[in-house]
Amino acid sequence: MSGRNPTVRRVATLALTGLLMGSVAACGGDAAPAAKQDPGSQLEIWIRKPPGSNTEKTAKELAAKFTERSGVPTHVTALFDDFETKLQQAAAQKQLPDIVINDSAQLGTLVKQGIVREVDRAAIDGQDKLTPASWDAAKGADGKFYGVPNSAQSFALFIRKDWREKVGLPVPKTWAELDALAGAFTTKDPDGNGKADTYGYTVPGSTKRGYMSWYFTSFLWAAGGDYFTGPAGKLKPAIAGEKSVAAVEWFKAQFCTAKTVAPGAVTMETTQAHPVFETGKAGIYFTGPYNMGRFDKNLGADKYEVVPAPAGPGGTAASLAEGENVYLMAGSKNQAGQEKFAEFAISVDGQTIGMAGDTDGNIVRLPVNSQVTLSSVRKDTRWDVFDKVYKESGRYTPVVPDWNPFRQASAETINAVVANCGSDPKQELTKLAATFQQELTKQGVAG
User: Fold this and answer.
1) Residue 180 parent element (H or E)
2) Which structural domains are found in the chain, ordered by start?
3) Cα(369)–Cα(133) distance, rounded to whole angstroms?
4) pLDDT digit string, tens, across residues 185-234
């Protein structure tokens, strides 16, 4: 994908393999000693946020306050594009940061690579104040913890309120009403400019980082479909089941029959999808609370509304639940400092700083500390929608040793289905189920 010289890639791979073997030994074995500890050494902190953004400023504020309280020096680096690739490059160069704040969905991959160390949950001060669900997002398939939860989130519908009122339709309570609204936004000139240049749905459907699967997951679950069935450790593919196929057929229809999806969706990442909504090209966007500050500024808070996605055909509402963990990276010279930083990040003060009030600088979306009252930090009641969705219908991705291969494979299949209007969803999902079965067997969790 990167186009790098194969020889260079092989050298980097060998270097990474050597480092990872050393990291694993340092974490749990006796083959290699742990790095010599220096409790005064600076903590290098990486966050997956755009450089120069308000989220980077919040992360730096959090780190500065931690340094002020603890005396442990810190340095924050914000990276966004190709974050995981850059982390692997740092591993190959034996220059891993001490702390990484990144998606909970990356946990399995980081554990597999051997570049994070196991967390003794009981030894983390304040761990008992965190919600049980948040700790689930930091747990590996082996039942051990490999991160400290820092933030949670769910997703909701952002709808152009002014457009909805223009076409005279209600806030959607069913998928049929949602599709009717998307159709009206596509065909009834909701912006009144006399041109057929508006659409219903904004979809970040790129295969990069598995975006298409990430976006579609909530709808798959709401339709009664699923990726797997069976108990943990004895999983079977469910992606080609009747309800899963029906969900993909519904999704494909938006692209191919109703044509309510804004053009370019199959190559869009979120950074390209956001402007589609805020510039008036599409009026419905299923996304997270982190976009409210941006859309308030670029579109206007009075132009859109935030509402829960309606229940699917089976009568169930569902939202992908996500979050970010504080990962304590292997090989750190300051393990005590790593733990202190994690403890501060999950404290009431740390969570409050990370929430950044009602601004778009939040690195904590929904607090994981049960002692933090959302309304005491944020006066914007729209956050309550996401909090309610998370608590009532939020659901994390399946716990497997490494979720990324499943997310990537499903993203590529669903992307291909909607991009080709002559495709056969049942046939393609049956192939995907076979891929899932192979991967489940490979990871040792097949039923």
Assistant:
1) helix 175-187
2) 6-154+323-395 (3.40.190.10), 156-320+400-442 (3.40.190.10)
3) 11
4) 999 999 999 999 999 999 999 999 999 999 999 999 999 999 999 998 89
Q: Kindly state the tokens that stand for 56.
A: 């980077």
Secondary structure of residue 358 in the 3-state scheme: coil
Number of Cβ within a 10 Å radius of residue 401: 19
Query: Helix 54-70 vs helix 335-345: angle between axes, to the nearest 10 degrees?
Result: 120
What residues pair up with 446 in beta bridges, in sequence order?
235
Strand partners, 325: 102, 149
**No. of H helices and E strands in the chain?**
17, 13
Residue type, 91: A
Tokens of 334: 């300051």
For residues 356 and 335, the answer to whether their CB atoms sit within 8 Å is: no
Q: At 243, phi and psi to the nearest 5?
A: -75, -30
Beta pairing, strands 304-307 & 156-160: antiparallel
Query: Are 436 and 429 spatial neighbours (Cβ–Cβ below 8 Å)?
Result: no
Q: Which structure tokens are listed for 18?
A: 């050597």
Cα gap 136→233, rounded to integer Å: 16
Q: Strand runs (DSSP E) across 241-366, as ranges?
A: 282-287, 304-307, 319-320, 322-328
pTM of the model: 0.84
Q: To which H or E segment does residue 99 belong?
A: strand 99-103
Residue pLDDT, tens place only, 87-129: 999 999 999 999 999 999 899 999 999 999 999 999 999 999 9
Return d(Cα 46, Cα 298) in angstroms, integer: 28
